[in-house]
Amino acid sequence: MRHSAFAGFVVMSWVGLLATQAHAVATVSQAGSGVEARFASQSNAFTASNPTVGAWLAPGVGPYPSAAPIPGLPGAVFTTGNNFQPAGGWVDNFNDLFPPTTFTAATSNIADSYLPVATQTQDMQVTIPAWRFFQAPAAPGYAFEQLNFTSDYLLTGNSGLAGSTPAFPLSVNGVIKSPGAYAQFEAVIDYTFAAINTAGTIGPFASLGTLTYSTTALTPGAFSFNLNSAGALAATPATDGLLRINGFMFIAGDPFEMNINVVPEPASLLTTGCALVLLARRRRK
Q1: Engineered SS bond to 105: which of 38, 66, 95, 122, CB 3.0-4.6 Å?
Q2: Angle formed by the axes of helices 2-21 and 269-284, to 10°?
Q3: Beta bridge partners of residue 131, listed in sequence order
Q4: Separation CA 154–CA 156 (nearest Å)
């Protein structure tokens, strides 16, 4: 009897959980994305970008202000091209090809993650599978890479996704090489929503909130930690529409190495819930 009672409790709890989520749901499909990458080394004497953009002025040595793009570079603007929504995301590679002890290189991989059937605004994300920035010990001057990005999602059958405070974690590690000055990572990620009427017309975009990351290391030597996003996301209106995520992120330093990766999420609640139900059923036999 005690096993049966436990089984009934688990099943009822799981059904109750699903019922509480049923009031907010939308079917999600990708609607396009784009990223612009700008790389500089040797204190902006060497620059490269993808897609190619015109030259930009040297921003000066950092650290740079938090929650803002690198001085002189654009920030959270609508960006098309270099679609990163296909599996694997978009990868950029830059290298100034200086001699072996003085070169600077960066490899950035930006991607997205979403649930086909969403219940919260946070169920759509822009992610960083891997971002590597490396300066050789004798690399001259400061260096940086900034990514400007946009990712769109079509929401249909939308009964109003719930708001939340997600705190998405990133793994950050690297080293400031003596007598180095700093290593910095910043990101500003804006969520907006525009309704789509029965004629297919997209209305004006309204803010749903902003997530940010900000960290600066100033002491020569190694560093390693997880960094959570700050900020909250509002609920969407209960109507079909386009959810847009756009913003910027950058790595900068002198001389340094920095590695950033998305932290894998734990097993989903659905998997955990199903396992509990199966366990309960086995105990009843």
Answers
A1: 95
A2: 150
A3: 108, 260
A4: 6
Q: 41 with 96: CB under 8 angstroms?
A: yes
- DSSP letter for each residue of 191-231: EEEEEB-TT--B---EEEEEEEEEEEE-SSEEEEEEEE-B-
User: Given this model, what pLDDT does residue 242 score?
Assistant: 98
Residue 271: CB atoms within 10 Å: 10
The 10s digit of each residue's pLDDT in 95-129 is 999 998 999 999 999 999 999 999 999 999 999 99
Q: What is the percent of the chain with per-residue pLDDT over 70, rounded to a whole number? A: 85
Residue 187 CB partners (closer than 8 Å, separation 6+): 211, 212, 213, 214, 229, 247, 248, 249, 250
Helix (H/G/I), strand (E/B), else coil: 158:
coil
Contact of 151 with 84, CB cutoff 8 Å: yes
DSSP class of residue 150 equals: E
- The DSSP string of 46-72 is EEEEES---------SSPPPTTSPSTT
Spatial distance between the Cα atoms of 193 and 215, rounded to a whole number of angstroms: 28
CA distance 243 to 200: 15
Contact 251, 176 (CB under 8 A): no
Of 151, 76, 119, the C-alpha closest to 235 is: 119
Provide the pLDDT for residue 265.
63
Q: How does residue 260 score in pLDDT terms, banded at 50, 70 and 90?
A: very high
